[in-house]
Amino acid sequence: MSSLFPALTGGPAGRTALRFGDRSLTYAELAAAAGSLAGRLPAGGGRVAVWATPTLETAVAVVAALQAGVPVVPLNPKSGEKELGHILSDSAPAVVLTEAGVELPPPLGALARVDVDVHGTGRLPDDHASDEDPALIVYTSGTTGPPKGAVIPRRAIASTLDALADAWQWTQDDVLVHGLPLFHVHGLVLGVLGPLRRGGTVRHLGRFSTEGVARELSEGATMLFGVPTMYHRIAQTLPGDPGLAKALGRARLLVSGSAALPVHDHERITAATGQRVIERYGMTETLMNTSVRADGEPRAGTVGVPLPGVELRLVEEDGAPITSYDGETVGEIQVRGPNLFTEYLNRPDATAAAFTADGWFRTGDMAVREPDGYVRIVGRKATDLIKSGGYKIGAGEIENALLEHPGVREAAVTGEPDADLGERIVAWVVPADPQGPPSESELAEHVARRLAPHKRPRVVRYLDSLPRNDMGKIMKRALPS
């Protein structure tokens, strides 16, 4: 296949490729540093782990390994020792690549260490890897057991990034700003490898802040990637910060992903900036499946249409495809295309269970689809599909309705057994005013008016905060039982 990063050898050498804080590398400097590091990787293949801090070193390490045809295992620096131990024993990397001077935790103590020199100079190796060769092994969250390593081939990265270039009109002239972690698909593949494949620039904030977003968009950045937690903070800050509103108004594209962005936050951002945030849908195993297009209708609450090359269908509980889309019928999303992973490392059983006999990947995500193809996610099959009184109800739309109530700061919705209904709807609410939270009946009536009576919560439980992971997703399994 052709190189994942053609701009490293055939692009504008003096253009800035990466900027992390006040440190940056041009394409020529990135090629030299990656070439130097590639020459220090163990001969004979194998895998390399990367201590994936939000630094230049992480980006150089990943580029060097991919250019040399060596699969990368990104490690979350916040992982506990037990999880790290599992990932290392499962993936068996030959070395760990890291920033010099960083103290690594005990599970990495026995692994050979290579410190990344971002000022190194060396010849970039020719990229001879094939489409099907593994590029990344990214470990899933492990909500139902130890994390599984999704083996992501090079063709999945190339096809996803090229499909997004089509959908978002993404070019070498774009400058992307974000503050996402680099051990997930969102921050690493879309947020770093995406700009590098286009020949553009990424400016990483190191740590997300609304001040950083305003500064970078005011200084020429054209695109912002974020997760709902980040956009929620932006929405809260906008009323008192006209500079932020003006900066966001300059952006070519605002993209949210990794979880659903509440409609209320969509509306607040649009009202203050004139800009609409677009959403896309993907997961570790599939990279990106759908997106609202830059030249399409930015319909709040949806994740757009399938990307070029991606087949998507909804199926009933028995696996029968839903053939007529009406925007109401809930089904499980299944996808097929070049964006898919190849296997779960060392888990042939889990790999086989994830696919149908004819190659469709079972995402476990529930959605409805409009007649014109737009997809709206309603939740995860395992935690967000509630069967109550004969209805199939997605938790996501109830959460959106609750967040429209002025007395609700955060909301999560789950189901619990009910002798009469099968399952009853439970709302977990962080009130805007802990001293005067909205009542259970008030919230139930609020949801019934906006959606339908059968979608109202039967129980409301109040919390000080909701448990979230590194990407801002609510961890429903961690809610009090």
UniProtKB/TrEMBL annotation:
It comes from the Bacteria. Residues 13-345 form the AMP-dependent synthetase/ligase domain. Transmembrane segments: none annotated. GO terms for biological process: fatty acid metabolic process. Gene3D superfamilies: 3.30.300.30, N-terminal domain of ligase-like (3.40.50.12780). Pfam families: AMP-binding, AMP-binding_C. GO terms for molecular function: medium-chain fatty acid-CoA ligase activity. Residues 397-473 form the AMP-binding enzyme C-terminal domain. PROSITE patterns: AMP_BINDING. InterPro entries: AMP-bd_C, AMP-bd_C_sf, AMP-binding_CS, AMP-dep_synth/lig_dom, ANL_N_sf. NCBIfam families: PRK07787.1. Belongs to the ATP-dependent AMP-binding enzyme family. This is Acyl-CoA synthetase. The lineage of its organism: Bacteria, Bacillati, Actinomycetota, Actinomycetes, Kitasatosporales.
